[in-house]
Amino acid sequence: MTSSPDLTGRVALVTGASRGIGYFVARQMAAAGAHVIAVARTVGGLEELDDEIKAEAARTGKGEATLVPLDLTDMAGIDRLGGAINERWQKLDILVANAGVLGVIAPIGHVEAKVFDKVMAVNVTGTWRLIRSVDPLLRRSDAGRAIVLSSGSAHSARAYWAPYAASKAAVEALARSWADETRNTPLRVNIVNPGVARTAMRALAMPGEDPETLPHPSEVAAEILPLASPTLTETGLIWNVELGRFTAWQKPA
Ligand code: NDP
Asked: Is the separation of the CB atoms in 248 and 238 below 8 Å?
C-alpha cells in the first residue's frame, strides 16, 4: 500500500500493544503523530512501549502514549474505557483491535472447555464489547478508522486449529456487520490478515519453525498503518498483507 499516513492529532486505541504486531503498530502510529492509547495486561511491555515512544518524540516532537493495563475479558473495564476516552478526548479516531490468543493446537475433541471459552472471550467477546464501547466515539471522528486483526485460519479451516479459526471467523463477521452498519458514515472498518510474523503467538503455534525466516512484526505493522489513513475509502474488506491488496471475505483464488 502507500507509505505511512500522517496521523498528527489523531487518537488511536491499540489493543495487544505490549508485544508483537500491536506493539509495533502502536509505536509506528505514535511516530506518525498519533496519541496512542495502549491496551494490554503486561505493564512491563506497555512501559517499554512508552519509553520508545518518548524517545522517538524527543527526537521528532511527534507521538504520545497513554497506557491502559486491561484484561480484555474484563467486560466492565472495557465498558468504562469508552467513557474514559470520551471524558478526555470526546472522540476516538482509530481503533486497532489486535489483541488475541491462540489457545491450543489440538484435535477438536481434545480441546478443554476452559481453553475454548478463553479464546472466544478474548478474541470475540472482548472485541465485540470494545467495539460497543467505542463505536459512538469513532463515529464522532471526521475520519474514524477501525482495523480488526484476523488470520488466514478464518478461511482455511485447518486441522487442529478449530478454536482459534472459529474465533477469527467470528470476529471477521462482527467487523463486516459493523462495516455495513457504518457504510454511510465517515467510519471505515477493515480486517487485516497479517500473514505470518515473528511473534510469541507464532512461536507457540509453530514451535519447530526458525523464527529468523519470518517477517519481523515491525514490517507487518508498517503494512497495517495505511488502513488508519484519513484518506482511506475502503470499508468491509480484508487487507491481505502477504498479497499486498484488499480482498473480499472469500478466500482469494
Ligand atoms: P502476540 O502473542 O505476540 O501478542 C498478543 C497481544 O495480545 C499481546 O500484547 C497480549 O498482551 C495481548 N493479549 C492477549 N490476551 C489478552 C487479554 N486477555 N487482554 C488484553 N490483551 C491481551 O500475538 P501477535 O502479535 O502474533 O498477534 C497479534 C494479532 O495478529 C492477533 O490477533 C493474532 O491472532 C493475529 N495474527 C498473528 C499472526 C502471526 O503470525 N503472528 C498470524 C495471523 C494472525 P498481554 O499478554 O500483555 O495482555
From this structure: yes
In this structure, what C-alpha cell is assigned to residue 183?
457504510
Q: How far apart are CA 26 and CA 17, in angstroms?
A: 6
Q: What are phi and psi of 105, to 5 degrees?
A: -100, 110
Q: Name the strand (E) or helix (H) holding 246.
A: strand 245-247
184 Cα: distance to centroid of ligand 1 (angstroms): 31
- Residue with CA at minimum distance from ligand 1 atom 27: 21
- CA 36 → CA 27, 46, 219, distances in Å? 8, 11, 19
Ligand 1 pocket, residue 18 CB under 6 Å: yes
Q: How many residues does the chain have?
A: 253
Domains in the chain: ranges and CATH: 11-247 (3.40.50.720)
What ipTM was predicted for this assembly? 0.99
Looking at this protein, which amino acid is placed at residue 50?
Answer: D
CB 251 within 8 A of CB 206: no
Nearest-Å Rg of the Cα atoms of the chain is 17
Pairing of strands 238-240, 245-247: antiparallel
- Residue 22 CB less than 6 A away from ligand 1: yes
- Digit-coded pLDDT (tens) for 58-104: 999 999 999 999 999 999 999 999 999 999 999 999 999 999 999 99
Q: How buried is 253 (Cβ within 10 angstroms: 0-12 exposed, 13-18 middle, 19+ buried)?
A: exposed
Q: List Cα–Cα distances, 210 to 21, 158, 207, 215, in angstroms.
A: 18, 21, 8, 11
Residue 30 and residue 62: Cα distance in Å, rounded? 7
User: Could you tell me the distance, in angstroms and rounded to a whole number, from the CA of residue 215 to the centre of ligand 1?
Assistant: 16
Q: How far is the CA of 253 from the centre of ligand 1 (A)?
A: 28
In short, whether 132's Cβ falls inside 6 Å of ligand 1 is: no
